[in-house]
Design a protein that fits this description.
This protein has 166 residues and is an alpha+beta fold. The protein folds into two domains: 53 residues, Thrombin, subunit H (Beta Barrel); 98 residues, Up-down Bundle (Methane Monooxygenase Hydroxylase, Chain G, domain 1). It is built from five helices and five strands, in the order βββββααααα. Strands 4-3-2-1-5 form a five-stranded antiparallel sheet. The chain is globular, with a radius of gyration of 17 Å.
Length: 166
């Protein structure tokens, strides 16, 4: 159960704050919903309390996990990438990973897109996915690690600045 004012993560939307629980009648049945305000765009989501975990609503990661995700961005030892796939297939795969809500999946998408961008210009859709992945990672890690989001983004961009896709 999530509490009022608790920070949570909703897949593909990012970090939000639980503003409360409201009851709505839908099809003659009353249901309770978490009212979640997404911090990045001020959007309001209604998430059914009975299925909040099922739709991916979760707590912000802890600092230890956040540090491991940040460290994984620097580790290229087992990175294979999907450079050979056509952009359409990659786009679908990346979109699914962003919707999963798993921060490791989001980091993988960011890593691959930055890797690909080192050798070719990304399509408009791929650039949007890269921006979305960067936003999801930096926002959650900023809260988890109690760091400034912009400074964290600069650090992550610095990690990738010397990477070559060759």
């Amino acid at each position: 159960m999530f509490e009022k004012d608790q920070l949570v993560v909703y897949p593909a939307q990012g970090v939000g704050r639980v503003e409360g629980i409201q009851t709505y009648e839908i099809g003659g049945v009353e249901s309770d919903f978490y009212v979640v305000r997404i911090l990045s765009n001020n959007a309001t989501l209604l998430v059914p309390t009975a299925n909040a975990r099922g739709v991916g609503l979760r707590n912000i990661c802890d600092a230890e996990y956040g540090r491991s995700v940040l460290n994984s961005l620097q580790d290229w030892s087992d990175f294979k990438g999907n450079v050979g796939l056509n952009w359409n297939r990659r786009y679908r795969e990346y979109s699914e990973k962003l919707k999963s809500g798993d921060l490791v999946d989001v980091a993988h998408v960011l890593k691959e897109l930055i890797f690909i961008s080192q050798n070719k210009e990304l399509s408009f859709g791929e650039r949007r996915l890269m921006e979305q992945a960067m936003g999801l990672i930096t926002t959650e890690l900023a809260f988890a690690l109690e760091r400034d989001r912009e400074a964290l983004q600069n650090e992550i961009e610095g990690i990738f600045s010397g990477i070559s896709g060759e």
